[in-house]
Input
Amino acid sequence: MKIAQIIKGKLPFFIFISLTSNCLAAEGMPQFNAKSFSSQIFWLALTFTTLYIIINYLILPRIRENIRLRKNKIANDLERAENIKLEVENMISQSNVKLEEARNRVKKIIKDSLLRSSKEYDNQVETIKKQITIKQLETEKEIAAYKKNIEKDIEKLVVSLSAIILNRLNYSKLTPRELEEELLKFNMSNNV
Output
């Protein structure tokens, strides 16, 4: 299969060589034959002129147009990129301004909250101090009343204890009531 493909590809080349070898062998190289110089120059001039016209008026304008379009596209893309860059910078600056405003608002809210909580704390401390003062006064009143009660109880206990002691000593057969009256008389006489 490969051999068939190689033969097909090279067959036209072998045919061309075999046909032209007879012409070349009879006259020599046609490029150096002086009789064919004028026709060679004519065909050379015609070929190069045709190529020059085709390249200069058909191919180069298309290439120039493509280059111009590419330059315009690149310039437009650069301009668009610059505009986008400016918009992004503008958006960044706006977001920075908004972020700074938000930070300031948060700082203000925190400051207000701290002031409010400080006031509430002070108010609660004052309320608690007032409550403590009221409780202290109530407690002092209760203690004073308790002291009075204890003093009365102590006097009663002293009288009854004295009566018990005196009864045990067989000093006198006084009742606690009688002893209390005697002590009151004694206190009155000493105070006067």
Q: What stands out?
A: The chain has one domain: 38-191. The first helix runs from residue 2 to 27. Residues 38-191 form one domain.
